[in-house]
Every structure is written in C-alpha cells, then in structure tokens.
C-alpha cells in the first residue's frame, strides 16, 4: 500500500485525528452549555454527530499513537477498509450536522434580523464553526483513506 | 483504467447523470415556485446549488451519451481528474444545501409545532427530499470517479 504523510500510523494522520477530536469536542461543549439548544432538532443533531466524531477520532488517534511508538505499519487492507467506512460515515454525518445547524443559525442571525436568545447566540455560532472545522479535517482523512485503499 | 458499470461512458453512468439532473431540477422547480422562499438564505442556497448540479450533470450526461453512441472510452486520466473535482465539489455543495434547508424545514415543521406558510410548506419539503435524492446519486458518481482515478 502507498505510504505518504496522512496514511495510518504517520504523524500527520495522528495530528489530523487530534484536530478532529479537539474541534468536535469544542463544538459539543459550546452547544451543550447553551441553554435551550434542545428545542432545536438541528442543534441536538450537531451534538450527536460531533459526539460520534470525538469517539471515532479518539480511537483512531490512539491507534496511530500506538503505531508511531511501536513503529508499526497499519496498512492492512481489511483495517484500511474499516477506516474508510468509518471515516466516510462520520464525515458525511458531520457535514450534514454542521450544515443543518448552520442553516438554522443563519436563519436566526440574518433572516430574522437578530438572534433573540441573548448570550446563547454566540455559543450556537461557535459550535457551528467548530463543527465545520471538524468536518474539514475528517474529510481530509477520509479522502486519504479512500485513496490508499483504491490504489492498493 | 478500470472498467465497470458506473465508469464514464457506460450506461449506468449515463442513467446516474440523468437521475441527478431530474432530482436537482425537481428540487429547483419545487423551491422556486414556492412564494417567499427568498426570505430564507438556506432555501436560496438550495436553488443555487441544485442549479449548479443540473448544469454539471447535464454536461456529463451529454458526454456519456456521446461516448455510448460512438462506443468511445472516456478513461483519459486528465478527463477523469476533472470529473473527480467537479463531482466532489457539486456533491459537497449538494449535501450542505440539502442539510441546511432540511434543518430549516425541520425547524418550521417540528420545533415550531407547525409550518405557517400554507401551501408553500409542502413545496419546501418536496424540494429538500429531492435535493437529498440528488445528493445520493451524485455521491455514487463521485465515489466511482475517485476510485477509478486512484486505481489508475
């Protein structure tokens, strides 16, 4: 299998996983501390999706760290197939969650002229931005995984 | 390059492109005929994104039809790279647009208890569903394109 920065077991892959975790955890924290988020399906969906993202990315970060320390390669085709499926599912869910909550946030801030939830408005915005950042990092990982699987 | 159903110039690819066009055009038609859609950024975004999708998919459908009639292969790596970029850009925009408008539609229908735009509500819903169907078909095309490019 191909070996370039970003493939499983490399430092780039580990950094990408950590960034995914940090952005997704930040998004969950920002949304979960906003009072009244549970009244909006899109905001609950962001918490669920980013929660799944944190779990998945943290597991893979541990695996990358283990491979780095033991200087092992993680280029088993079955393992990479599993990474591809997990990455694509979480990446799709993350983009959908970020966009759905982004749509609702834009509705509050632009279309209705103002956001009437006080201090919580800022938290909604931060959560959406962090969810998009998390999606960008997971999308990079997902593309690399699919590429190395297809290239064999 | 690999040759299996769904690769450029095959009947499956042509059918996928036509489906993308039909779903995206239906989504635009349903949203554009709903009075007051322009008050919502997410709904305007669906029209823009699905408009781009129709244009892109129609161009590729014509190319597939030409390849089918002339029995030519479209497996030039430069051409496939172009298809990959176009497919991924439109697929990402389509999912984001479908999710953003889906988030707003769910807000109207579930979170606010009812939709207060009368007959237009049904059109918003139909447009969102068609946008998601269009995304599913473009996602299949995009995955196939990336796969044949990576597999060489």
UniProtKB/TrEMBL annotation, chains A, B:
<comment type="similarity">
    <text>Belongs to the Casparian strip membrane proteins (CASP) family.</text>
</comment>
<keyword id="KW-0812">Transmembrane</keyword>
<dbReference type="GO" id="GO:0005886">
    <property type="term" value="C:plasma membrane"/>
</dbReference>
<feature type="domain" description="Casparian strip membrane protein">
    <location>
        <begin position="7"/>
        <end position="136"/>
    </location>
</feature>
<feature type="transmembrane region" description="Helical">
    <location>
        <begin position="88"/>
        <end position="112"/>
    </location>
</feature>
<feature type="transmembrane region" description="Helical">
    <location>
        <begin position="14"/>
        <end position="38"/>
    </location>
</feature>
<keyword id="KW-1003">Cell membrane</keyword>
<feature type="transmembrane region" description="Helical">
    <location>
        <begin position="45"/>
        <end position="68"/>
    </location>
</feature>
<protein>
    <recommendedName>
        <fullName>CASP-like protein</fullName>
    </recommendedName>
</protein>
<feature type="transmembrane region" description="Helical">
    <location>
        <begin position="124"/>
        <end position="150"/>
    </location>
</feature>
<comment type="subunit">
    <text>Homodimer and heterodimers.</text>
</comment>
<dbReference type="InterPro" id="IPR045009">
    <property type="entry name" value="CASPL-5"/>
</dbReference>
<dbReference type="InterPro" id="IPR006702">
    <property type="entry name" value="CASP_dom"/>
</dbReference>
<keyword id="KW-0472">Membrane</keyword>
<dbReference type="Pfam" id="PF04535">
    <property type="entry name" value="CASP_dom"/>
</dbReference>
<keyword id="KW-1133">Transmembrane helix</keyword>
């Amino acid at each position: 299998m191909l070996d370039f920065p970003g493939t499983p077991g490399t430092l780039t892959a580990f950094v990408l996983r950590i960034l995914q975790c940090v952005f997704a955890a930040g998004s969950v924290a920002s949304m979960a501390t906003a009072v009244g988020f549970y009244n909006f399906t899109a905001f609950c969906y962001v918490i669920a999706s980013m929660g799944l993202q944190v779990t998945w990315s943290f597991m893979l970060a541990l695996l990358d760290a283990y491979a780095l320390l033991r200087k092992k390669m993680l280029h088993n085709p079955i393992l990479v197939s599993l990474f591809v499926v997990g990455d694509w599912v979480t990446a799709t869910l993350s983009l959908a969650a970020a966009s759905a909550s982004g749509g609702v946030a834009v509705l509050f801030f632009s279309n209705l002229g103002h956001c009437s939830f006080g201090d919580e408005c800022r938290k909604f915005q931060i959560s959406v931005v962090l969810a998009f950042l998390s999606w960008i990092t997971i999308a990079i990982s997902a593309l690399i995984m699919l590429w190395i699987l297809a290239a064999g």
